[in-house]
Design brief:
The chain has 124 residues and is mostly beta strands. The chain has strands spanning 2-6, 9-12, 17-24, 33-38, 45-50, 57-59, 67-72, 77-82, 91-97, 113-114, 118-123.
């Protein structure tokens, strides 16, 4: 099972990026998926999550109204549209997928599979 995150890069404050996370090896169409991020010297933190059918989404307060999570189950892919980016959004972004259904979607331990991360850098 592999989660391949892509779409990171360098962008100016106020700009936008769209991250993608493509899953291979198994389907996650019945599982919630999420995005987390980790800035240098900080712990990994929850960013956004989406239910198996896209009907329910969750966001960290720090990104609410700026980021949008979505998924395409036919492509086994989850997306994170990031608008109005701020320098404090700079981090490595990780996608994750649930399998066992334990814990809540905002918790790191609730996820069983993780991607390798993609760097997002927002300059001021």
């Amino acid at each position: 099972v592999q989660l391949q995150a892509s779409g990171g890069g360098l962008v100016q404050a106020g700009g936008s990026l769209r991250l993608s996370c493509a899953a291979s090896g198994r389907t996650f169409s019945s599982n919630a998926m999420g995005w987390f991020r980790q800035a240098p010297g900080k712990e990994r933190e929850f960013v956004a999550a989406i239910s198996w059918n896209g009907g329910t989404t969750y966001y960290a307060d720090s990104v609410k109204g700026r980021f949008t999570i979505s998924r395409d189950n036919a492509k086994n892919t989850v997306y994170l549209q990031m608008d109005s980016l701020k320098p404090e959004d700079t981090a490595v972004y990780y996608c994750a997928a649930r399998a066992r259904g334990l814990g809540f979607v905002t918790e790191i331990n609730a996820y069983d599979y993780w991607g390798q991360g993609t760097q997002v850098t927002v300059s001021s």
